[in-house]
Design a protein that fits this description.
Pathway: Carbohydrate metabolism; galactose metabolism. This protein is of the alpha/beta class and about 325 residues long. Helices cover about 45% and strands about 15% of the residues. It has helices at about 10-20, 55-65, 80-85, 85-105, 140-160, 185-195, 220-240, 255-265, 290-295, 305-330; strands at about 1-5, 25-30, 45-50, 65-70, 110-115, 130, 160-170, 170, 200-205, 215, 220, 245-250, 255, 275, 285-290. Helix 1 (about 10-20) crosses helix 7 (about 220-240), helix 2 (about 55-65) runs parallel beside helix 4 and helix 4 (about 85-105) runs parallel beside helix 5 (about 140-160).
Length: about 325
Amino acid sequence: MTWMVTGGAGYIGAHVVEAFRAVGTDTVVVDNLSSGHRGFVPEDIPFIQADLNDRAALDGAFAEHPVAGVVHIAGYKYAGESVRKPLRTYRDNVTGMVALLEAMEGAGVANMVFSSSAATFGTPDSELVTEASATVPESPYGQTKLIGEWLLADQARAAGLRHTSLRYFNVVGSGTDRISDTSPHNLFPLVFDALVAGRTPRINGADYPTPDGTCVRDYIHVADLAEAHVAAARRVESGETVEPVYNLGSGAGTSVREIMDAMASVTGIDFEPEVQARRPGDPARIVADGTLAARDLGWTMRHSVQDMVASAWSARQAWEAQQEQRAQQTR
């Protein structure tokens, strides 16, 4: 049987496709390429360029392929941008998910793993976030992810959908040079852009009550995240008991200073970050407890901070070389 990966041409989705391939599971990718790249999907993987709100395309995909379940990653994923573009966020993340669930029900597909977000928590009231922590999202993005979880729960009650949702904070690194994080909003690409352009990266606040004075956050390697999606999919498909949500986190976190030090070490670009004033509302430390995911999904942090930065930098250089090669071919 085949698993459909929506958003499978994106940074995270393409890694999930790779993880499925590693365990011998066939996939079919649905992606509108609004932020993904066709080149991230291997040529031998069936690819359907379509928006989730295109029911005809979804129905056709389910009719053509023996889909056992869906890993749903597609969506408008920028928390900051979602405040400026709430209607697009709700259309892509809520209306699109409704269309997907309708198409799944029509095709008799009853398994889903939803790529949710720690943005559902908003600003947690404790340093260690568990699945039981209050969900008080502070952006349309976080709200739509929480609504997605509600949709799954309601559809499970109504139609027997088997599902689980994965919540996580900052996804970094790369599992292969073929797939790079090209988002204009994510931390690693932003820091790399600054270093390459000769600008000094900035730290917002260095006087927090943490070991080095900078904020501590959860960073997880994208390959570890992808393996967790596949483990969840296999557990859901087999009918084993799953929690409605799992946090994927380190339980310890990494400071912004540690990230910057690793950036300097890996890139060979020596720099001292510019320290600015704290940003209002930034907690000193937020990390997720991955105990339940470790128990059920085999979740573990398999990559160090150095691994995360080194793999991201290598993939970025490969991406830039590829873009330059294409540019030369069109001149």
